[in-house]
Write a sequence for this structure.
């Protein structure tokens, strides 16, 4: 199975007209294509006064997706879309192999490569373990083990000053260690991307994880970060792609929360 992600940003004042167009023309056209397993349109805040829309469509095979993109129906819908004056050249498209036996961390790693991430900092965490191993094995990426999560924010600012891109991997419990340092992002206006594996929610066994896990989204938002969430494997790649695009092209601080339902619950005895 393959997933196509189409991301489009537009002013909030155009949102209603845009949604009406897609509900009437875009979504029905895609659903009618051979091999389409489903399509949905979601939106989330972007820069002030702007909304970012993501259209996710799932396909039986890459060949059927490519055939749909080349069809007369698709081309006519694109012409009709451009005639609405929503803007041209703003949309960004990505296609992912979302086969069920492929771990979502592989898709994240490919996004890191595409966005030329050179520094990946982390406090060791089981939820990020596969992604960390992929980064460690890549000679183009420098993996940096931290003693505390807030060091990753300072490292990201230094990387930016040196012309490099960095990502911070942490668990939700580590967000509490970063509260004061998060002010550096909004004050100094540098791109910042963090992926946060969540605890204290789906099936949590450890009561000590619950307070910070439940507070994590609010703490990050109150600190000025844009917060996205992925709860299903098929959501991971387009969500991280959109977050990376926003962080590194808009000089924004963005956090992607990888839900506990996605990474799986733990029991006593597991790290």
């Amino acid at each position: 199975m393959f997933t196509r992600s189409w991301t489009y940003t537009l002013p909030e004042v155009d949102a209603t007209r845009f949604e009406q167009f897609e509900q009437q023309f875009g979504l029905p056209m895609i659903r009618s294509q051979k091999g389409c397993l489903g399509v949905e349109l979601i939106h989330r805040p972007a820069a002030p006064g702007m909304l970012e829309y993501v259209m996710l469509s799932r396909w039986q095979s890459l060949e059927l997706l490519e055939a749909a993109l080349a069809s007369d129906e698709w081309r006519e819908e694109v012409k009709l879309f451009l005639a609405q004056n929503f803007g041209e050249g703003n949309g960004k498209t990505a296609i992912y192999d979302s086969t069920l036996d492929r771990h979502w961390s592989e898709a994240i790693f490919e996004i890191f490569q595409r966005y030329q991430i050179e520094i990946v900092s982390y406090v060791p965490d089981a939820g990020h373990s596969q992604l960390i191993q992929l980064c460690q094995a890549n000679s183009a990426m420098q993996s940096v083990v931290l003693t505390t999560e807030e060091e990753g924010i300072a490292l990201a600012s230094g990387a930016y000053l040196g012309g490099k891109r960095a990502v911070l991997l942490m668990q939700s419990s580590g967000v509490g260690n970063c509260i004061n340092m998060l002010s550096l992002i909004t004050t100094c206006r540098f791109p910042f991307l963090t992926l946060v594996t969540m605890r204290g929610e789906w099936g949590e066994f450890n009561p000590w994880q619950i307070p910070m896990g439940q507070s994590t989204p609010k703490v990050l938002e109150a600190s000025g970060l844009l917060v996205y969430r992925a709860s299903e494997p098929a959501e991971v790649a387009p969500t991280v792609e959109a977050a990376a695009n926003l962080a590194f092209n808009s000089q924004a601080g963005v956090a992607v929360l990888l839900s506990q339902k996605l990474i799986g619950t733990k029991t006593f005895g597991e790290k």
